[in-house]
Amino acid sequence: LFIIGPGKTSSAQDKENTVPIDTYLQLGNFEVFKPAFNESKNLNGKKFSTLDLLNADYYDIDKLEPEKGSQLNWKSNVYEWKVEKAAKDDFIFPEKKPVKDVNQIAFLATYIETSRWMQANLELTSPQLVEIYLDNKKIKTKDMEQEKNVDPGSVSTKLKLKKGKHLLLLKTLKTATNNT
Q1: Which is nearest to 155 in space by CA: 133, 122, 179?
Q2: Scanning 15, 55, 71, 121, which has its CA 20 to 30 A from the CA of 34?
Q3: Strands 129-134, 164-174: pairing kind
Q4: What string of DSSP letters covers the chain?
Q5: What is the three-class DSSP state of 57?
Q6: What's the whole-model pTM score?
Q7: Sequential pLDDT tens for the chain (180 residues)
Q8: Where does 15-117 show beta strands of DSSP type E?
Q9: d(C-alpha 112, C-alpha 37), whole Å
């Protein structure tokens, strides 16, 4: 679930001005793999982490064109942006049928249009790791993954939106060890 509301308001105004985003475009699930020797330490003495899997540049974000029906070639497969709706509980599940023991990323996108400059709060609740982009610039990362049947975890950030149309893009990672 992610919600956009105005910047600084009272709680009564929050409810009135909150806009749930329940329709979005989805691309993928793409199977992604850890590198060879991921259990070994790198030159800096660190092991490869799940967050490294999320942060990897699988595809140039600037080249993504979220539009219903638009296609992307990925490792000899063709994927298409599809319109999806949030579940009844307002959760967004990027994977319809999670594949056990497989790391999967997906892209979720929506457009925000404003008639004037505004500041808004973005709230996202997800058990998965997520990178949040506004107009192709990373603005926030949810870097903690929650286990199944546990509070899913949240992240929030302020958005400064100029008049016009803005792309809000999420890159999610469902890890092989977590079937949430």
Answers
A1: 122
A2: 71
A3: antiparallel
A4: -EEEEESS--HHHHHHH-EE--EEEEEEEEEE-PPTTTTSB-TTS-B--HHHHHHS-SS-GGG----TT-EEEETTEEEE-EEEE--TTS---S-SSPPTT-EEEEEEEEEEEESS-EEEEEEEE-SSEEEEEETTEEEEEE--PPPTTS---EEEEEEEE-SEEEEEEEEEEE-TT---
A5: coil
A6: 0.81
A7: 444 544 444 454 555 567 778 889 999 888 888 877 777 888 888 888 888 888 888 888 888 989 998 998 888 888 899 998 876 655 555 555 556 678 888 999 999 999 999 888 888 888 888 999 999 999 999 887 666 555 677 888 899 999 999 999 999 988 876 554
A8: 19-20, 23-32, 71-74, 77-80, 82-85, 103-114
A9: 42
Q: Which residue has the tokens 């107009």?
A: 135
20 forms bridges with which residues in the sheet?
A: 3
Tell me which residue has tokens 């994927």. Answer: 79
